[in-house]
Amino acid sequence: MKIVVVGGTGLIGSQVVALLRDSGHEAVAAAPSTGVDTLTGEGLAQALTGADVVVDVPNSPSFDPEPALDFFTRSERNLTEAEKEAGVRHHVVLSIVGVDQVPDYGYYRAKVAQEEAVRNSGVPYTIVRATQFFEFIAPVMDMTTEGTEVHLPSLRLRPMASADVAADVADAALGEPLYGVRDIAGPEVERLDRLGEITLAAKPDGRSIVTDEAASPFAGMPDGVLIGDDTARLASTRYEDWLKQS
Questions:
Q1: Inter-residue contact 233 to 168 (CB < 8 Å)
Q2: Most buried of the four, 96, 133, 143, 159, by CB within 10 Å?
Q3: Nearest partner of 96 among 119, 76, 113, 79, judged by Cα
Q4: What is the pTM of this model?
Q5: Residue 220 has pLDDT above 90, yes or no
Q6: Which residues form the NAD(P)-binding domain (predicted)?
Q7: What are phi and psi of 123, to 5 degrees?
Q8: What is the DSSP string of 39-57?
Q9: Is the separation of the CB atoms in 181 and 129 below 8 Å?
Q10: Separation CA 118–CA 122 (nearest Å)
């Protein structure tokens, strides 16, 4: 199959492209750097010519509510219109576990709007909702560092390796459209402050963890939203093992 991976040069997209190519498929990385811009529509028609499937994994350059909403809704409108013209038969979009349970979070509202645009596009679709990536833990810690203290809340997460996310997205791309959602999550539930402790135990840098419920981008997030439910497909990679490997 020809599978166009929008956002195919990013963390998830580049791994999806590699997996699909290893499986013998024609995987095309579509991104502004390769001449494809979903915000303007530039290069979309050419990239999607002959495409069977589109994998939709780019991220907004801004986490602020209004720019994120504009990015996701405008991109989806241009992308799905081009897909219908090209006869694409399956649209796979990556979203976030629990995204529809936190209406006060502007970025999450933007992702919900993206999901709705895909549902209403008329293109057969699958929505893959993933928990937070392991790769996100260290940047959050850097954001909440004050001197030698890392302030993190005790919010529970079920994070997973980006490689496991990419594998599930690639699997979805090779399957039939679900016309619905599939959740994927990591193998273990951990508190965010505990994940910080695990990180510093593996890679000491002189900092220490302070439990602070008002810290981090997740301050005020209802507990339990970010871990998924019993229907989630669980990945196998543990955070401690990933830290050793990385």
A1: yes
A2: 159
A3: 113
A4: 0.95
A5: no
A6: 14-138
A7: -95, 130
A8: TT-TTHHHHHTT-SEEEE-
A9: yes
A10: 8
- Residue 200: both structure tokens together: 């510093």
Q: What is the DSSP letter of 228?
A: -
Q: What are the backbone angles phi and psi of residue 158, rounded to the nearest 5°?
A: -135, 65
d(CA 224, CA 226): 6
Query: Pick from 186, 192, 188: which is nearest to 163 by CA?
Result: 186
Q: Residue 2 is which amino acid?
A: K
Q: How far apart are CA 226 and CA 127, in angstroms?
A: 17
pLDDT digits (tens, 9 = 90+) for 113-148: 999 999 999 999 999 999 999 999 999 999 999 999
How, if at all, do strands 125-130 and 53-56 pair? unpaired
Half-sphere exposure of 126 (CA within 13 A, CB side): 22
133: phi > 0 → left, psi -120 to 50 → alpha, else beta; which?
beta
Helices (H), the chain: 11-22, 44-48, 65-86, 106-119, 137-143, 162-174, 192-202, 239-245
